Each structure stands twice: as structure tokens, then as C-alpha cells.
Amino acid sequence: MEVALLVPVRGATGIWGPSARACAQLAAEELNRAGGVGGRELRLHVFNAADECRDIPQQLGALIDEGALDAVVGMHTSAVRGRVSAATRGRVPFVYTPLYEGGERAPGVYAIGETPELQLLPALRTLCLRYGARRWVFVGHDCVWPRASHRFAGAALQALGAQLLADRYTRPACGSYRAVLDEIERLRPDAVLLSLVGQDAIDFNREFAARGLARRIRRLSCAIEENALLAIGADSTAGLFACAGYFATLGHDANMAFKERYHGRYGERAPVLNALAQSAYDGVHFLAALLAAPGRAAGRRAPLAFRSVRGLSWQGNARVQQPVFLAEADGHFFQVTERL
């Protein structure tokens, strides 16, 4: 069985690549040791799914036309997801694994990641009510997921009686956040919702801390994970919160067993585990269960049973449930503070 694994391996989001590939490969090896998928060996073929890479639709379309591709598993941005779904057109299953803005209805696309209602809403509520974050500034990339998430977050703040002071967007790889940071200094919010990813999130947080803003303004991100945290640097992570369905420091039995398998396969110097990478592991196992299921209709009467470290439940793209956690950065590590 030939499966395209789409992960960014270069560019601004290339930091996600090594750990995502490792997690997906681990899942494939587990499945193959158990007999594969319907008796067929599952083989992963890695494609660079960085936003800058524009030839993926043509590559995938040609492989599908030739009958050389059975499925796609993707861990990348929503902008890439749109291009990929236009190329697959429901001809092969396309499992999309990371957090996203929700509402995916394209034929043959199976989205299993966190959505704003599940992930962002309870985190905003906690920071508003428990940490006193009443005045907010939003900063994100000028693309699909940040804009949709910020619309959702703005409505959520209004319902909580909190105030949105500014909603700002930047182009990817803009190089400097001086203007945005000047405005944040002037507005003096209690918190910033940060919807930047990859190297841009790293650069923003370094500049944010260098101005001394971390001492008095909290930051919340749905997409900063352990790789980015390491790159930001321990001196720049004070007051940084993240919410996600997975953190490497989770102590439940499923994660401890997963980490033992992961490090047993790749060693103690393996790529850093994180929510985005781990979603690729769940995605490969989800694909195997999906292909083995009698029907693939979205409106299932029962959740699709598959091996999920997160305890993820999927009955359709509009009916995904999983635990979500809030964590606060402590130097180079995320310490989970609560289940949301």
C-alpha cells in the first residue's frame, strides 16, 4: 500500500519535519509488524509540504492518475490542505492530522486535529477568568487558519466580557515584527493570542521577550510546540502558554508507552516529540482503521476504532473529540497545568 506522507521538510515550517516523519514511520512499522493493512505492507513516501512548495498537487495528481498512490496523510498548514484536496478530489483518502480551523467538508478528506471550539475556546476562558486576561491583541499570519481562529476567538472574548484591542496579520517570513510590537507596547494588553507558526513564531517570541514584554503580557498559542520552544530559548518563554491535544510531558499510561516505543526505535537523541508530530502517528493508524472499516461515510453511528495515543474519537469531521490540555512554558519545557 503506497501512502504519501506530506510534511514540511524545508522552509519556515521545516522545523516540524524530522519529528513528524519519525512518528509516522513508527506507526507504519507497528502496522506492518501486525500484518499491514488488509495484508498489504504500508509504505510511506515523504513529500515536502512546506507552504513554499507549490508542485505537490501536480505530483499527487499524476501518481493518483497512474494508480501509484493509495492514500495521503498530511501534517502541514491549512493552505497546503486546500491545494492537496483539490488534487486528490476524493479519489484516495486524505487524512489531515494537525489542528485546523474546522469545517472541512471536501470529499475524501478526513480531519482529525483540534479545532478552535475544542482547543482555543476553553483556553481563552481559562486565561480570562483564572489569569485575569481581559484585554487582548491577536497576531497571526495572513492565511486561512489564523483568520478563521481569530474570528472565533473574537466572538468568544465578547461572550466572556473581555475586549479585543487589535487583530493584526503579517505575511509569512516577514522578517521583523517591529510595527506589531510597537502597537502592543502602546496598547498594553493583558495577553496576546499568537497564531504564527514555525520560524515566524520563533522570531516573534524572541523579539517580544527582548523588549521586556514577557514580564507583563501573557501569550497564548495553539501551534507552538516543543521544537519551537527549544528554538525560542529558555530566556524568552516566560508567560507563554500553549493548548493542544498532546504534550510530550503528559504522564498518562498511553503516552508513557508511546514514548518508550518511540525512544526504543530512535534512541534518546530522537527528534523532539510534540503535538504536531504526534498527530502524524495517530493519522497513520487512523488511515489503517479507515481502510479496514466497512464504510467510510462521515456520519458514522460509532467512533472509528484505532490506536490513538491521545484517546481521539472520530465519527466524522464535525464530530471529533479528544482531551485538550493547557501548558505553560518553563524554560525549555511545557508543564501541563490542567486538562481543559
TrEMBL record:
Q: Does the keyword Translocase apply?
A: no
Signal sequence, renumbered to the chain: none
What UniProt keywords are attached to this protein's entry? Signal
In terms of InterPro entries, this protein maps to: Leu-bd (IPR028081), Peripla_BP_I (IPR028082)
The UniProt record lists the keyword Signal? yes
UniProt domain Leucine-binding protein: residue ranges: 3-332
Tell me where on the tree of life, at the top rank, the source sits: Bacteria
What start-end ranges are recorded for coiled-coil regions in this protein? none
CDD domains under this entry? PBP1_NHase
> What family is reported?
Belongs to the leucine-binding protein family.
Provide the protein name: Leucine-binding protein domain-containing protein
Organism of origin: Cupriavidus malaysiensis
